[in-house]
Specification:
The protein is an alpha/beta fold and 500 residues long. The chain has 16 helices and 24 strands. Strands 14-17-18-13-12-20-21 form a seven-stranded mixed beta sheet, sandwiched between helices. It starts with 7 loop residues before the first helix and ends with a strand.
């Protein structure tokens, strides 16, 4: 997909002409909430109101679930030939690419990330994800069990039924695609509940999905708040699965909702507190410092696998931190519509205040603030925080234990490999980790010893659609991406035939 070459003025002109969709998409049509309720969606860039979005609640969820179940039972998608689903999903991916500028602009206006990230990374990767699962539909086989000559046992993978995909605000399109790709490819009916902070791209792609040929009721969008629309989906007796990405706190709510309703399947990709470990034998400390800085400040630090805990060996700490600070000082929040903006705004004022509160907490608990720590660009009307670095952090401090979801780096020193592993594992989370070392034996030892779903060695945040993504411990369970993601949206059925 070509990258953007638009200027800020061109993006602003395009924003002025945008027709922002703001209703729910239920049973093949855009509709308001049953009670007419809406909420104002403001842009974190400058605080202006973008739209009044339908605020869905239980009656709207009931309508969407009924339409999803009707479509599933009718088999218009669930029992369609794999090559038909493939063709439609490929067209859907193509339409996302065709409307990439519009979707990227909506994404940036909605949640404040730089337009170059929305246009050159998030939207292309979302289209790639839909395409990946489209191409996989007719290449995943069912099985025959080795039962002997007197029986034939066929093992089918059948779609679960009605899937609720509840996604976060930090990567709205990308996280949606990670759910939509495999759940639609395997034949489910899907109801997407975007975060109230970033609903606009989800609402728009519903129209593109319909244009691609996804049948009425198979893909629907219910915007609204977690405690209303989200809870209604989690408790609904006719939803077969909730696929959730978001905080660990909310993930636990969905576990409870499932237990109190119909024991629906739950897949959770929740919080993280990634240890980014720098060993003294790391050969390229300049590359490690670049990765350490961008590993926490990318996307304003609003990343579940952000390298928020930097663990550095005592013997190289002073020199290495000087390198990290050199990189961090070059990263400044800017107008997200500027093509060269490095990082943008926090998603809303609530999140900005939350992050600033953690910075205050770090100071109070005795960590040394050595860079940043302040709100900037306040005169823009938006919500920006400068890159922030703490040193002399203990792992029992709040800023080392709780997910901040902002541009705040906590630096912790260690003396040997065993201590590094102990500190890395001393957290409720287990999403990702990174190790920098030139010792192959150490790389294997530490990557096996650290409890995380993904461990990067001599790099950070690398991967593609072929590699599964998900965590251990209270970072959740179930995997997005790769063929493994298709497994959680299907169930096995064994048909045993006795042969005479």
């Amino acid at each position: 997909m070509p990258t953007t070459t638009r200027s800020r003025d061109e993006w602003l002109a395009m924003a002025g002409d945008l027709d922002v969709r703001s209703q729910a998409f239920i049973d093949g049509a855009y509709v308001g909430a049953t009670d007419g309720a809406t909420f104002e969606k403001t842009s974190p860039i400058d605080g202006r109101v973008l739209a009044k979005v339908a605020s869905c609640d239980a009656p709207d969820v009931d309508r969407a679930v009924a339409a999803a179940r009707k479509a599933f039972d009718a088999g218009v998608w669930s029992r369609s030939a794999p090559k038909k689903r493939k063709a439609i999903l490929l067209k859907f991916a193509g339409l996302i690419r065709q409307h990439a500028d519009e979707l990227a602009l909506l994404e940036t206006l909605d949640m404040g990330k730089p337009i170059r990230e929305s246009r050159n990374t998030d939207i292309p990767l979302a289209a790639d994800c839909i395409q990946y699962y489209a191409e996989a539909v007719d290449k995943v086989y069912d099985e025959i069990a080795p039962t002997g000559p007197n029986a034939l046992t066929m093992i089918y993978r059948e779609p679960l039924g009605v899937v609720a995909a509840v996604v976060p605000w930090n990567f709205p399109m990308l996280m949606s695609s990670w759910k939509l790709g495999p759940s639609l490819a395997t034949g489910n009916s899907v109801i997407l509940k975007p975060a109230e902070q970033s609903p606009l791209t989800a609402i728009r792609i519903a129209e593109l999905a319909a244009e691609a040929g996804i049948p009425q009721g198979v893909f629907q969008v219910v915007p609204g708040f977690g405690e209303t629309a989200g809870q209604a989906l989690g408790r609904h007796m006719d939803v077969d699965m909730v696929a959730f990405t978001g905080s660990t706190e909310v993930g636990k709510y969905f576990l409870r909702y499932a237990g109190e309703s119909n024991m629906k399947r739950i897949s959770l990709e929740c919080g993280g507190k990634t240890p980014h470990v720098i060993m003294p034998d790391a050969g390229d400390l300049d590359a490690a410092a670049e990765a350490a800085a961008w590993g926490i400040f990318y996307n304003q630090g609003e990343v579940c696998n952000a390298g928020s805990r930097l663990l550095v060996h005592d013997s190289i700490k002073d020199d290495f931190m000087a390198k990290v600070l050199d990189v961090a000082r070059t990263i400044r929040p800017g107008d997200p519509l500027e093509p060269d903006a490095q990082i943008g705004a926090m998603v809303d004022e609530t999140q900005m205040r939350r992050v600033l509160g953690y910075i205050d907490k770090g100071r109070e608990e005795g960590a040394d603030l050595i860079l940043g720590g302040e709100r900037v660009r306040a005169d823009s009307g938006g919500f920006y925080i400068e890159p922030t670095v703490f040193d002399h952090v203990r792992n029992d401090m709040t800023i080392a234990q709780e997910e901040i979801f902002g541009p705040v780096l906590a630096t912790i020193s260690f003396g040997d490999e065993q201590e590094a592993v102990r500190i890395a594992n001393d957290t409720i989370y287990g999403l990702t980790a990174a190790i920098w070392t030139d010792d192959l034996n150490r790389a294997h030892r530490m990557s096996r010893a650290i409890r995380a779903g993904i461990v990067w060695v001599n790099c950070f945040d690398h991967g593609d659609m072929s590699s599964p993504f998900g965590g251990f411990k209270q970072s959740g369970f179930g995997r997005d991406k790769s063929l493994h993601a298709m497994e959680k949206y299907t169930d096995h059925k064994a048909v045993w035939i006795r042969l005479r």
